[in-house]
TrEMBL record:
Name this protein carries in UniProt: catechol O-methyltransferase
EC numbers for this chain: 2.1.1.6
Species lineage: Eukaryota, Metazoa, Chordata, Craniata, Vertebrata
PROSITE patterns tied to this protein: SAM_OMT_I
Species annotation: Otus sunia
GO molecular function: catechol O-methyltransferase activity
Keyword set, alphabetical order: Catecholamine metabolism, Membrane, Methyltransferase, Neurotransmitter degradation, S-adenosyl-L-methionine, Transferase, Transmembrane, Transmembrane helix
Positions of transmembrane segments: 39-58
Family: Belongs to the class I-like SAM-binding methyltransferase superfamily. Cation-dependent O-methyltransferase family.
GO cellular component terms, semicolon-separated: axon; dendrite; membrane
PANTHER family: CATECHOL O-METHYLTRANSFERASE, CATECHOL O-METHYLTRANSFERASE 1-RELATED
A GO BP entry: methylation
Amino acid sequence: MVGHGLFSLIFTKRIPLSCATLTLGCFSLSFQMLESSSVLLFIVFVLLFILLLFVVLIRKNGTAALIWNEIIREKITNFIMNQSKEQRILNFVLQNAVRGDPCSVLDTIDQYCSQKEWAMNVGNEKGLILDKTVEEANPSVALELGTYCGYSAVRIARVLKAGAHLLTVEFNPEFAAIAKQMIEFAGVQDKVKLLEGPSEEIIPQLKKKYEVDTVDFVFLDHWKDRYTPDTILLQVSLRSVCMVTNQNTSPKNILILGAGET
Ligand SMILES: C[S@@+](CC[C@H](N)C(=O)[O-])C[C@H]1O[C@@H](n2cnc3c(N)ncnc32)[C@H](O)[C@@H]1O
Protein backbone atom coordinates (compact mmCIF):
# COMPACT_ATOMS: atom_id res chain seq x y z
CA MET A 1 0.00 0.00 0.00
CA VAL A 2 2.74 2.40 1.01
CA GLY A 3 4.74 1.42 -2.10
CA HIS A 4 1.72 1.92 -4.35
CA GLY A 5 1.05 5.37 -2.88
CA LEU A 6 4.65 6.36 -3.38
CA PHE A 7 4.67 5.21 -7.02
CA SER A 8 1.48 7.08 -7.79
CA LEU A 9 2.98 10.17 -6.18
CA ILE A 10 6.11 9.79 -8.33
CA PHE A 11 4.20 9.14 -11.58
CA THR A 12 1.73 11.96 -11.04
CA LYS A 13 4.85 14.11 -10.41
CA ARG A 14 3.31 15.50 -7.25
CA ILE A 15 6.75 15.08 -5.57
CA PRO A 16 10.14 15.38 -7.30
CA LEU A 17 11.86 12.12 -8.32
CA SER A 18 15.00 12.74 -6.18
CA CYS A 19 12.80 13.16 -3.09
CA ALA A 20 11.02 9.86 -3.80
CA THR A 21 14.35 8.05 -4.24
CA LEU A 22 15.45 9.48 -0.90
CA THR A 23 12.28 8.32 0.84
CA LEU A 24 12.63 4.82 -0.63
CA GLY A 25 16.30 4.76 0.42
CA CYS A 26 15.34 5.77 3.97
CA PHE A 27 12.77 2.98 4.10
CA SER A 28 15.19 0.30 2.98
CA LEU A 29 17.91 1.67 5.26
CA SER A 30 15.71 1.63 8.34
CA PHE A 31 14.54 -1.88 7.42
CA GLN A 32 18.17 -3.01 7.06
CA MET A 33 19.05 -1.33 10.36
CA LEU A 34 16.15 -3.06 12.05
CA GLU A 35 17.29 -6.34 10.56
CA SER A 36 20.96 -5.84 11.49
CA SER A 37 20.14 -4.62 15.01
CA SER A 38 18.05 -7.74 15.65
CA VAL A 39 20.94 -9.88 14.32
CA LEU A 40 23.26 -7.95 16.65
CA LEU A 41 20.88 -8.47 19.55
CA PHE A 42 20.74 -12.18 18.78
CA ILE A 43 24.56 -12.41 18.70
CA VAL A 44 24.81 -10.53 22.03
CA PHE A 45 22.21 -12.88 23.53
CA VAL A 46 24.06 -16.00 22.31
CA LEU A 47 27.39 -14.63 23.63
CA LEU A 48 25.84 -13.86 27.02
CA PHE A 49 24.38 -17.36 27.13
CA ILE A 50 27.77 -18.92 26.32
CA LEU A 51 29.38 -16.74 29.02
CA LEU A 52 26.78 -17.84 31.56
CA LEU A 53 27.32 -21.49 30.61
CA PHE A 54 31.08 -20.99 30.96
CA VAL A 55 30.75 -19.39 34.42
CA VAL A 56 28.52 -22.26 35.61
CA LEU A 57 30.98 -24.80 34.15
CA ILE A 58 33.96 -23.15 35.88
CA ARG A 59 32.11 -23.17 39.22
CA LYS A 60 30.94 -26.78 38.94
CA ASN A 61 33.75 -28.51 37.04
CA GLY A 62 37.34 -28.76 38.32
CA THR A 63 38.87 -29.29 34.87
CA ALA A 64 37.05 -26.28 33.43
CA ALA A 65 38.22 -24.20 36.40
CA LEU A 66 41.78 -25.40 35.84
CA ILE A 67 41.62 -24.57 32.11
CA TRP A 68 40.19 -21.13 32.88
CA ASN A 69 42.66 -20.29 35.69
CA GLU A 70 45.78 -21.94 34.35
CA ILE A 71 45.45 -21.29 30.63
CA ILE A 72 43.07 -18.45 29.83
CA ARG A 73 43.14 -16.18 32.91
CA GLU A 74 46.86 -16.67 33.54
CA LYS A 75 47.78 -15.92 29.90
CA ILE A 76 45.64 -12.77 29.93
CA THR A 77 47.15 -11.60 33.26
CA ASN A 78 50.68 -12.37 32.02
CA PHE A 79 50.01 -10.37 28.85
CA ILE A 80 48.51 -7.38 30.71
CA MET A 81 51.19 -7.33 33.44
CA ASN A 82 54.01 -8.38 31.09
CA GLN A 83 55.10 -10.81 33.81
CA SER A 84 54.77 -14.54 34.55
CA LYS A 85 52.84 -15.97 37.51
CA GLU A 86 56.11 -17.28 38.97
CA GLN A 87 57.58 -13.75 38.81
CA ARG A 88 54.47 -12.45 40.59
CA ILE A 89 54.92 -15.08 43.33
CA LEU A 90 58.56 -14.04 43.79
CA ASN A 91 57.68 -10.32 43.86
CA PHE A 92 54.98 -10.99 46.47
CA VAL A 93 57.54 -12.83 48.62
CA LEU A 94 60.16 -10.08 48.19
CA GLN A 95 57.61 -7.48 49.27
CA ASN A 96 55.87 -9.36 52.08
CA ALA A 97 58.11 -12.04 53.61
CA VAL A 98 60.94 -11.63 56.10
CA ARG A 99 64.38 -11.98 54.48
CA GLY A 100 66.35 -14.87 55.94
CA ASP A 101 63.27 -16.51 57.47
CA PRO A 102 62.33 -19.69 55.51
CA CYS A 103 59.04 -20.15 57.40
CA SER A 104 57.96 -16.63 56.52
CA VAL A 105 58.83 -17.30 52.85
CA LEU A 106 56.77 -20.52 52.85
CA ASP A 107 53.80 -18.85 54.57
CA THR A 108 53.90 -15.97 52.09
CA ILE A 109 53.96 -18.32 49.08
CA ASP A 110 51.07 -20.32 50.60
CA GLN A 111 49.15 -17.09 51.21
CA TYR A 112 49.65 -15.89 47.61
CA CYS A 113 48.73 -19.26 46.11
CA SER A 114 45.62 -19.76 48.20
CA GLN A 115 44.31 -16.19 47.84
CA LYS A 116 45.50 -15.00 44.45
CA GLU A 117 46.79 -17.59 41.98
CA TRP A 118 47.10 -21.35 42.29
CA ALA A 119 50.61 -22.73 41.66
CA MET A 120 52.08 -26.23 41.55
CA ASN A 121 54.03 -26.03 44.84
CA VAL A 122 53.72 -29.03 47.14
CA GLY A 123 51.80 -26.76 49.55
CA ASN A 124 51.45 -26.80 53.32
CA GLU A 125 49.26 -29.89 53.73
CA LYS A 126 51.59 -32.29 51.92
CA GLY A 127 54.50 -30.10 52.98
CA LEU A 128 53.96 -31.10 56.62
CA ILE A 129 54.24 -34.77 55.63
CA LEU A 130 57.32 -33.95 53.58
CA ASP A 131 58.92 -32.20 56.61
CA LYS A 132 58.24 -35.22 58.80
CA THR A 133 59.63 -37.66 56.20
CA VAL A 134 62.82 -35.62 55.76
CA GLU A 135 63.27 -35.38 59.52
CA GLU A 136 62.81 -39.16 59.87
CA ALA A 137 65.23 -39.94 57.02
CA ASN A 138 67.68 -37.38 58.47
CA PRO A 139 69.65 -37.24 55.20
CA SER A 140 73.15 -35.90 54.67
CA VAL A 141 72.49 -35.52 50.96
CA ALA A 142 68.98 -34.97 49.65
CA LEU A 143 67.89 -34.73 46.03
CA GLU A 144 64.81 -33.06 44.61
CA LEU A 145 63.67 -33.47 41.01
CA GLY A 146 61.51 -30.47 40.04
CA THR A 147 62.39 -27.21 41.82
CA TYR A 148 59.78 -24.89 40.27
CA CYS A 149 59.87 -21.64 42.38
CA GLY A 150 61.87 -23.23 45.19
CA TYR A 151 59.03 -23.75 47.67
CA SER A 152 59.80 -27.38 48.52
CA ALA A 153 63.56 -26.73 48.30
CA VAL A 154 63.22 -24.08 51.04
CA ARG A 155 60.94 -26.44 52.94
CA ILE A 156 63.40 -29.37 52.81
CA ALA A 157 66.48 -27.20 53.45
CA ARG A 158 65.06 -25.65 56.61
CA VAL A 159 64.70 -29.08 58.30
CA LEU A 160 68.06 -30.52 57.19
CA LYS A 161 70.60 -31.20 59.92
CA ALA A 162 73.74 -29.06 60.13
CA GLY A 163 76.20 -29.90 57.35
CA ALA A 164 73.57 -31.63 55.19
CA HIS A 165 72.63 -30.30 51.78
CA LEU A 166 70.01 -30.53 49.07
CA LEU A 167 70.55 -30.81 45.34
CA THR A 168 67.54 -29.63 43.40
CA VAL A 169 67.05 -30.12 39.64
CA GLU A 170 65.03 -27.85 37.35
CA PHE A 171 65.08 -27.72 33.55
CA ASN A 172 63.06 -24.55 33.02
CA PRO A 173 65.55 -21.63 33.02
CA GLU A 174 62.94 -19.06 34.12
CA PHE A 175 61.82 -21.21 37.08
CA ALA A 176 65.46 -21.95 37.97
CA ALA A 177 66.28 -18.21 38.08
CA ILE A 178 63.23 -17.50 40.25
CA ALA A 179 64.01 -20.43 42.58
CA LYS A 180 67.60 -19.18 43.04
CA GLN A 181 66.31 -15.80 44.22
CA MET A 182 63.69 -17.46 46.43
CA ILE A 183 66.30 -19.74 48.05
CA GLU A 184 68.65 -16.80 48.64
CA PHE A 185 65.88 -14.63 50.07
CA ALA A 186 64.92 -17.46 52.47
CA GLY A 187 68.57 -17.61 53.58
CA VAL A 188 69.08 -21.32 52.80
CA GLN A 189 71.44 -20.86 49.84
CA ASP A 190 74.35 -22.53 51.71
CA LYS A 191 72.31 -25.72 52.03
CA VAL A 192 70.86 -25.83 48.52
CA LYS A 193 72.56 -26.34 45.18
CA LEU A 194 70.36 -25.79 42.16
CA LEU A 195 71.30 -27.87 39.13
CA GLU A 196 69.81 -26.52 35.94
CA GLY A 197 68.95 -29.06 33.27
CA PRO A 198 66.79 -32.12 32.56
CA SER A 199 66.86 -34.79 35.25
CA GLU A 200 67.72 -37.48 32.69
CA GLU A 201 70.97 -35.62 31.91
CA ILE A 202 71.78 -34.49 35.46
CA ILE A 203 71.31 -37.85 37.25
CA PRO A 204 74.01 -39.73 35.28
CA GLN A 205 76.42 -36.81 35.95
CA LEU A 206 75.83 -36.70 39.72
CA LYS A 207 78.74 -38.97 40.57
CA LYS A 208 81.44 -37.56 38.28
CA LYS A 209 80.46 -33.91 37.92
CA TYR A 210 78.93 -33.24 41.35
CA GLU A 211 80.87 -35.85 43.37
CA VAL A 212 77.74 -37.43 44.83
CA ASP A 213 78.03 -41.12 45.69
CA THR A 214 74.87 -41.60 47.70
CA VAL A 215 71.63 -39.71 48.09
CA ASP A 216 69.84 -40.46 51.34
CA PHE A 217 66.56 -38.90 50.37
CA VAL A 218 64.90 -38.22 46.99
CA PHE A 219 61.84 -36.07 46.43
CA LEU A 220 60.40 -36.84 42.98
CA ASP A 221 58.24 -33.88 42.00
CA HIS A 222 58.90 -33.27 38.31
CA TRP A 223 56.79 -34.45 35.32
CA LYS A 224 55.37 -37.85 36.12
CA ASP A 225 56.42 -39.55 32.87
CA ARG A 226 59.99 -39.30 34.23
CA TYR A 227 59.28 -40.96 37.60
CA THR A 228 59.97 -44.55 36.57
CA PRO A 229 62.91 -43.89 34.18
CA ASP A 230 64.55 -41.51 36.68
CA THR A 231 64.08 -43.96 39.55
CA ILE A 232 65.83 -46.60 37.46
CA LEU A 233 68.54 -44.09 36.50
CA LEU A 234 69.05 -43.25 40.18
CA GLN A 235 69.31 -46.90 41.11
CA VAL A 236 71.86 -47.49 38.35
CA SER A 237 73.89 -44.32 39.00
CA LEU A 238 73.77 -44.03 42.79
CA ARG A 239 72.66 -45.66 45.98
CA SER A 240 69.47 -43.91 47.02
CA VAL A 241 67.80 -44.77 50.27
CA CYS A 242 64.49 -42.99 50.77
CA MET A 243 62.29 -41.87 47.88
CA VAL A 244 59.26 -39.64 48.20
CA THR A 245 56.84 -38.40 45.58
CA ASN A 246 53.90 -36.07 45.30
CA GLN A 247 51.93 -38.14 42.78
CA ASN A 248 50.29 -41.52 42.93
CA THR A 249 51.61 -42.67 39.56
CA SER A 250 55.05 -43.50 40.81
CA PRO A 251 56.98 -46.75 40.82
CA LYS A 252 56.65 -49.21 43.69
CA ASN A 253 58.47 -48.79 47.06
CA ILE A 254 58.21 -45.03 46.99
CA LEU A 255 56.43 -43.08 49.68
CA ILE A 256 53.55 -41.03 48.26
CA LEU A 257 52.86 -37.87 50.23
CA GLY A 258 49.52 -38.13 51.96
CA ALA A 259 48.91 -41.71 50.88
CA GLY A 260 51.22 -43.78 53.06
CA GLU A 261 53.74 -46.34 51.86
CA THR A 262 53.15 -48.36 48.67
C1 LIG B 1 55.31 -29.78 40.40
S1 LIG B 1 56.57 -28.69 39.94
C2 LIG B 1 57.69 -28.80 41.31
C3 LIG B 1 57.15 -28.14 42.55
C4 LIG B 1 58.18 -28.02 43.64
N1 LIG B 1 58.77 -29.29 43.98
C5 LIG B 1 57.54 -27.43 44.87
O1 LIG B 1 56.79 -28.16 45.56
O2 LIG B 1 57.74 -26.24 45.12
C6 LIG B 1 57.42 -29.60 38.68
C7 LIG B 1 58.67 -28.92 38.17
O3 LIG B 1 59.49 -29.90 37.55
C8 LIG B 1 60.11 -29.35 36.43
N2 LIG B 1 60.48 -30.51 35.58
C9 LIG B 1 59.63 -31.34 34.93
N3 LIG B 1 60.29 -32.32 34.31
C10 LIG B 1 61.61 -32.12 34.57
C11 LIG B 1 62.80 -32.82 34.21
N4 LIG B 1 62.76 -33.94 33.46
N5 LIG B 1 63.98 -32.33 34.63
C12 LIG B 1 64.01 -31.21 35.40
N6 LIG B 1 62.93 -30.52 35.78
C13 LIG B 1 61.74 -30.96 35.38
C14 LIG B 1 59.07 -28.41 35.85
O4 LIG B 1 59.66 -27.43 35.04
C15 LIG B 1 58.43 -27.86 37.11
O5 LIG B 1 59.04 -26.67 37.49
